Amino acid sequence: FAELHATVAGLPLASSRVLPGIVLRRDFAAYCPMGGDLRAVLVTEPLRTPLPAPGVEFVVESEGQYQASLCWISRRTEALMKHLQSNNVKLLLSSVKQEEVVIYYAKLYGVSVVESLSSEEIALIREITGVSPYAPSGDNIHREITETAVATFCQPLLLGSKRCVHIGFTSVCAFQPHCLILCGPVDGVNEQHAAALQGAFTMLQQLFNRVD
């Protein structure tokens, strides 16, 4: 329930509504307008390769070597984003904050990015879509990307003064998510309404449990 409702203070209760899909309460880190169905990937790690790999000592003997390493990382990041584009991936959903070079190349190659998703939001998206996080494997970043979800739409949504992301996924199960937008004059009223609705849904779940 926590991931499937959002509250907006300062609006009348009559403005409350139910939206298909899910609402992520953060703005796009990069937004490239898109229409129709689109492919999306989940990531749980930074896409910019660090200079030293875990457990490896990285020795730089000159400024030239250091700059050359940074150039290699930038080219690899660009190649990865270009590979996403060539696989028709238009949306990147990340549980970590990506570095500026990733955002730059995402905009360049038409890939929208939403970052800093919570573990609960990642789990919800995985339940809806059935996909696992995508992880570029070492130096082989050009393998076929199979861990993709299908989104029927992905667009900005303004809730009061807060910019959010509204996404509709093609579900692989009977669960068809909808998000409840609760409006009210102040936060306290919204919290009361949310608690009452959550209690009502819990009661309905218990009422309709199968009894053998």
From TrEMBL:
Q: Which InterPro entries has this protein been placed in?
A: BBS10, GroEL-like_apical_dom_sf, TCP-1-like_intermed_sf
Q: Name one GO biological process term.
A: chaperone-mediated protein complex assembly
Give the protein name, as stated in the record: BBS10 protein
Q: Which organism is it from?
A: Rynchops niger (Black skimmer)
